[in-house]
Amino acid sequence: MKKISIYILLLFSVLSAHAQVQVESRLDSIDMMIGEQVKLTLNVNCKKGQQLELPKYQPSQYITPGVEVLEETKADTSELDNDMMQVTKVYTLTSFDENLYYIPPQKVKVSGKTYETKNLALKVLTMPVDTLHPENFFPPKDVQDNPFKWSEWSPMFWMSLLMLLLFALAFYLRIRLKDNKPVIAKVRIVKKVLPHQRAMSEIEKIKAEHMQISEDQKGYYTRLTDTLRKYIEERFGFNAMEMTSSEIIERLQQADDKRMIDELRELFVTADLVKFAKHTTLINENDANLVHAVDFINTTKLENQPTSERIEPKLTEQDVRSMRSRIALKWAISICAVLAALLLIYIIYRVYLLM
């Protein structure tokens, strides 16, 4: 009795599990025209957690001769009552031959057991053609021109007008830019001649002209003392050209050797006598004064000074405003030109689409 009871329970559980699995398929339409599409929907109801295998088809694979599968969707699962679930999958079918097709049952495996859907039928229809009256057939119509619509062309018209205005504005600003002359503000690097080099060069000219042995002693001492005054002014930084000989000596006394100052004082005194008192000197005295001037320059010269000078021009307020105005004009011209070019490209593209 126990064995019989166990067998009965097992049989009942198997029948119960079988009854819980439901497999069905349906077509959304039983007929269609050639080349149209129809949906085959497959529904499977089973217990949650059961292993499920649904039919799989590749694109353009025939589900039956004459009917092919275009695509299939992914399985969609929804929950039901009593710990059940429903799995839905949709297949898209098509056919290009007129016929009545038999759609075979779809096989579904649930936990290793195979279930089949019911049989389906699909009728594929074609367009009826009246072959008895060929005069009713008409050839294809000629290409028709699209009617002109101002609403389609008005945006291009206004954009074209804006583009012309931008080009005109850019041209006008270009003329203004030409009228506004540029301000040249170039930095120059000028070779700088050191004070002692300039003074020695002048003394070499005096020697080359043999002025110390000429009769024009006033001219000789004038050039010699002027050369020394210019050197002192550049070297020591005071206006020696506008000072008397004694004033120059007083300014130099605290900076230089006393013996050199005495020799320079003697040179300036002799020069003043020649220029203002018509004093006459000897040739050897002129040579000695020339040597004293050279010694003073060599003793007081500054070595290792920069030999070039950077000269930066000073711009007036008007020049600065002019430069800013030119920069603003250049930016305005560039912006107008770019906007006009972009509008031109867009207008050509839109006209091409409307043609």
> Helicity, in percent?
40-55%
SSE pattern, N- to C-terminal: HEEEEEEEEEEEEHEHHHHHEH
Amino-to-carboxy terminus distance = 93 Å
Query: How large is the radius of gyration?
Result: 57 Å
Characterize the main sheet: 6 strands, antiparallel
Q: How many individual helices?
A: 8
Q: What do the pLDDT scores average to? A: 81
Q: How many β-strand runs?
A: 14
Poorly predicted regions? 10-17
Q: What global shape is seen? A: elongated
Overall structural class, as computed from helix and strand content, comes to alpha+beta
Q: What proportion of the residues form beta strands (DSSP E)?
A: 15-25%
Layout of helices and strands:
Elements: H1 2-20, E1 22-27, E2 31-33, E3 37-47, E4 52-53, E5 61-64, E6 67-72, E7 76-79, E8 84-94, E9 99-103, E10 107-110, E11 113-116, E12 120-125, H2 150-179, E13 188-191, H3 195-208, H4 217-236, H5 245-252, H6 258-276, H7 283-300, E14 308-311, H8 317-354
Parallel strand pairs: 2-12
Antiparallel strand pairs: 1-3, 3-8, 4-10, 5-6, 6-8, 7-8, 9-12, 10-11, 13-14
Give a quick set of tags describing it.
355 residues; alpha+beta; 8 helices; 47% helix
Quick structural overview:
Helix content is 47%, strand content 21%. The chain has helices at 2-20, 150-179, 195-208, 217-236, 245-252, 258-276, 283-300, 317-354, and strands at 22-27, 31-33, 37-47, 52-53, 61-64, 67-72, 76-79, 84-94, 99-103, 107-110, 113-116, 120-125, 188-191, 308-311.
